[in-house]
Each structure stands twice: as C-alpha cells, then as structure tokens.
Amino acid sequence: MNPESDNQHSDLEDRFISLLNEDEKLSLLSIFESSPETKASFEATQAIWGDMERLTVPDATSMDIKATFHENLGRFKTKEKGSFWATLKSLFTYKPSYNWAYALLLLGTGSMFGYFIGQPSLSTHEEVKRLSEEMQDMKQIMMISMLDNPVATERIKAVSYIQEMTEVDGQVIDALHSTVTIM
Amino acid sequence: MGLLFERHHKPLFGFIYHMTGQTAYSEDLVQSVFYRMLQYRHTFKGKGEFKSWMYHLTRNLIKDTFRKSNRIDYIEDVSKISPSIESSQDFEKKQESERLHKSISRLKSEHKEVLVLSKFQEMNYKEIAEVLKTTKANVKVHRAMKELKSMYLIKEQ
User: Fold this and answer.
1) Beta carbons of A138 and A144 less than 8 angstroms apart
2) pLDDT digits (tens, 9 = 90+) for A46-85
3) Which of A20, A47, A132, B54 counts the most CB atoms within 10 A of its CB?
4) How many whole angstroms separate alpha carbon A65 and alpha carbon A71?
5) Number of C-beta neighbours around residue A111 at 10 A
6) What angle do CA B39, B127, B1 make, to 5 degrees?
7) In the structure, how many helices (H) and strands (E) does chain A have?
8) How many whole angstroms separate alpha carbon A150 and alpha carbon A180?
9) Nearest C-alpha of chain B: how many angstroms from A100?
C-alpha cells in the first residue's frame, strides 16, 4: 500500500468514526474490495471503538462534590467582595445602567436650570407694566397732537387710531369731541 | 455558576477520569477547574464555545498538576470501570475492558486527549481543535486509534 492511499484510508477511517456520507461509504467499500487487509484492519479498529463503549466512568458520587463546590463558591465570593482590586475593578466595569442614570440626571438638571433661568423676575414684570403704561400715555399724547393738527386727513387718521385704543383719558375724549364738531 | 456546575461537572469528571484514571483525584480536579473558571472568567470572551474553553482550562490544569507533582500521568483505578460480574462471559468482558482501559492509559497524552474528547465527550473535530488550540486538520483520531490498536492487540496475542 502506498503512503498516499494509506493517508486516504486514514482520513476515511477518521470520518467513519465521526460520520460518513453515502459517497464516502461507497468509496470505502471499493477500497475494502480491493484490499482485504485494509478491511480487516478497519474492522479491528471499529471493534475497539465499539468496545470502548463498555468503559464506564464511576459516578462522581461523592455527595460532597456539590457541597464542596458551593462552599468554594461562597468563599470565592466573600474573598472577592472584600478585595481592594475587586472594588477598583467594579468601578471601571462597564455598566449600562450607570450610563442611563447619568443621562437622566443630566437631563433633569438641565431642565431645572433652564426653567429657573427662563423665569422672568418680579422686577422685570413691574418694568414691563410701567413700560406699557408709558406707551399708552405716549399714544394718547400723540393722538391729541394729531387731533389738534390743522390738516384734516391727520385728524381723520387720529380718529381711526383712537378706535383701536381700549383705554383713553378725558383729555383725548375732549379733543375727539372738538375735532368731530369742527369736522 | 451553580447552573454551570450542575450541567457540566459530570462530563468534566468523566474527561478527567479517562485522562487520569483516578476517581478521588478527578473529583478534586473538577473543583479546581470550576474555581479556576471563576478566577479566569474574564478570559472567556464569548467567542467560540463555553464548553471548549472549559475543556481547554481542564486540560491545562491536568498538565499543570501533573507537572508540579511529577507523577506518572495515569494511575489505574480499574476496579470501578465495569459493572460487577455475574457469569464467565461477563468476567471475560470485564477482563477485556480492563485491558482496553490499561491500553488507553498508556497512550501518548496527546493521543489520549483526542480519543477521550472524541469518543467519550462526543466532540466533533472542530470542537476538539478548539480545545487543543489547533486546526481541524491536526486532529487525527486515526493515529490515536492506531496506537491504541497496536497496544491492545499486542497484549491480546
């Protein structure tokens, strides 16, 4: 038998041990037909392979095996919990929940900060009120000057503006009366 | 870890037993393997099979302990390998099993590993290659079988 065919047989033998497909089985049978020694050798291997089934393993029946394991596990946990390195390592261990908590904390802080910054202060309120009153006064003065204007179109404009105004004082009403009377 | 122990301690015990032939020692080594798994759990990256990683650790541990204690790598404890005998036929079978067991014990360590993983742990070539950190092409069960056959049949004659 040449080395190449010996190799081929060994490979087939290997695959027989795992699993042979139909083609490989046929190929093996043709080798057996041409070489009875190969067949005998193969059968002997197979027989030993089969005999190995009889080699049983004693049960790991020592009842202590589980107890010892749990004891070791407990000891390991205690040891690891107390060690400085374990604590240090746990600080640098990636924990997704920490990321979420940090993100939520940032969001909350940002919202609170934004809320308080955006809130107008009491003095701002008063200022706005005063400004709006000043504006109202200015408007009324402007209306009076427009109503006193000698040009008729200006006076008509003033009347139309006054219509849009919600609050007017007596001075404006008098001016309006005199304008309407003149017109 | 408790669940992993429940699931794997028996096959692992079987593997160590077939490799060493000693019951008490195999039980001790099972404990050592699980303790080492706890210590080196960060080395399991989740790539490949957990089983392969576990057997790889076991294999290294067997080598380490035998190197440290400088013992022969197999002590026969054949009294437990077969069921109790009833008849002469059973007796013959037991004799054969013991002889086969002894033959396996005398195999080269690398052959024994391949054979035990393949036959008793029912691993395929890919899994064996992962455990032994080699390629699939380097897993040669037939070489182990050839050695076993020569030992077994010589004794028989």
Assistant:
1) no
2) 888 888 888 888 876 556 788 888 888 888 888 777 667 7
3) B54
4) 10
5) 10
6) 30
7) 9, 0
8) 13
9) 24
Is B148:A48 a contact under the CB 8 Å cutoff? yes
Question: Model pTM?
Answer: 0.60
For chain B, say whether A98 makes contact (Cβ under 8 Å): no
Residue A163 has which token pair?
A: 């219509």
Joined together, the tokens standing for residue A125 give 């309120």
Question: Could you give the CA distance from residue B11 to residue B30 in angstroms, rounded to a whole number?
Answer: 10
Rounded Cα gap, residues B82 and A53, in angstroms: 11
By the 8 A CB rule, do A68 and A75 touch?
no
Q: Which two tokens stand for residue B136?
A: 């699939």
Nearest alpha-carbon partner for A60 in B15, B97, B94: B15
From A65, which residue of chain B is nearest by alpha-carbon distance? B27
Dump the DSSP string for B54-89.
HHHHHHHHHHHHHHHHT--S----GGGSSPPP-SHH
> What angle, rounded to 10 degrees, do the helices at B50-69 and B125-132 form?
50
Chain B residues 92-151 with a CB less than 8 Å from chain A: 93, 96-97, 100-101, 104, 118-120, 124-125, 140-143, 145-146, 148-149
